Amino acid sequence: MVNQHHEIYDVTIVGGGPVGLFTAFYSGMREMKTKIIEYLPFLGGKVPYFYPEKMIRDIGGIPNISGEKLTEQLVEQAMTFNPSVVLNEQCTELEQRDDGIFVLKSDNGSMHYTRTVILATGFGTLKSIKLDVANANEFEGNNLHYTPKRMAHYKGKHVLISGGGNSAVDWANELGAIADQVTLVYRKTDFSGIESHISKMKNSSVNVKTPYIISGLSGKSGQVEQAELRNLETMKTESLSIDEIIVNHGFEIDIGPISRWGIQMENGTILVNGNMETSIPGIFAVGDIANYQHKLPLIAGGFNDGPIAVNRAKQFIHPDKELTHLFSTNYDFSK
Ligand SMILES: Cc1cc2nc3c(=O)[nH]c(=O)nc-3n(C[C@H](O)[C@H](O)[C@H](O)COP(=O)(O)OP(=O)(O)OC[C@H]3O[C@@H](n4cnc5c(N)ncnc54)[C@H](O)[C@@H]3O)c2cc1C
């Protein structure tokens, strides 16, 4: 069903990654009515998508934290001021009405009305490259995964991994220690990626098969049971019984819709000034998508972008009011 959200928000943050989440917290603390719109069915952006179980060690004051824990804490912090959260929607169109209100339209037809927009879209929406096997979607989300589940899920199982990049090799190495058996197929013979990780995999119990692809799948009740593997040199096929499949063929980034909104961009990123203002007044960009001199694509850097954008958004909405700086230690969280 298409929702028409006629309520007007002060700030609408497109993208619920780490930077969008922290920006939502800060926007709430500046007492602005805030909404987050996220394409994925979950919040956290690249962190839970790519590295939920990896340790992050380059955020000040946090010596180490897993991607999953960081996401959990960011979501908790972002919800402090109860922003509206819309999941499973890709913002595809943006217009500005004569009265200055921005109208964001999503891929499902929903409309969102807002005084300012903060784009925290990373490099765009993340879409995994799908396995090129006709019936693959029958098993997707059951025991065929594009974004792997928690490690413990694979304990004692026979896991088939398809792919040859860093992520596929990392997964093979990590699962080698926990799964009953790991088989990795890759269509080329030379792996790209970090050499030490590749050597570790080749010298481990992981059954590495190159140049091989998954050419067929069979199973029942939505569960893959057998994978057909094709040797691309001999073109012979063989069958393998498996419990789980992880497909790691990379992902496509769809910056698409935003690049058509008339905002000045460079190499797939949005040009901003020191106030995180884009070329369209009232639209700001923060995090990985924001491009300014000496920009580093780090989570910690994005945490600085957000408050700057929020403060400017507040001034944009209330041009006559003087904006004083606000520390969280000065804010009354009991009200
Ligand atoms: C493997 C890997 C390891 C990393 N390790 C570290 C590390 O150790 N330390 C560190 O600081 N950084 C690390 N990074 C970088 C870090 O993940 C990024 O800098 C960070 O995620 C940027 O946050 P963001 O919120 O700007 O964007 P993202 O995390 O990319 O989130 C953007 C969100 O916007 C959504 N979106 C995009 N377009 C739309 C749209 N049109 N409509 C609705 N939603 C949309 C996307 O679905 C996504 O969820 C790593 C990155 C990778 C890939």
Automatic annotation (TrEMBL):
GO terms for molecular function: ferredoxin-NADP+ reductase activity; flavin adenine dinucleotide binding; NADP binding. Its cofactor is FAD. Keywords: FAD, Flavoprotein, NADP, Oxidoreductase. It catalyses: 2 reduced [2Fe-2S]-[ferredoxin] + NADP(+) + H(+) = 2 oxidized [2Fe-2S]-[ferredoxin] + NADPH. InterPro entries: FAD/NAD-bd_sf (IPR036188), FAD/NAD-binding_dom (IPR023753), Fd--NADP_Rdtase_type_2 (IPR022890), Ferredoxin-NADP_redctase_2 (IPR050097). Its EC number is 1.18.1.2. Homodimer. HAMAP family: FENR2 (MF_01685). This is Ferredoxin--NADP reductase.
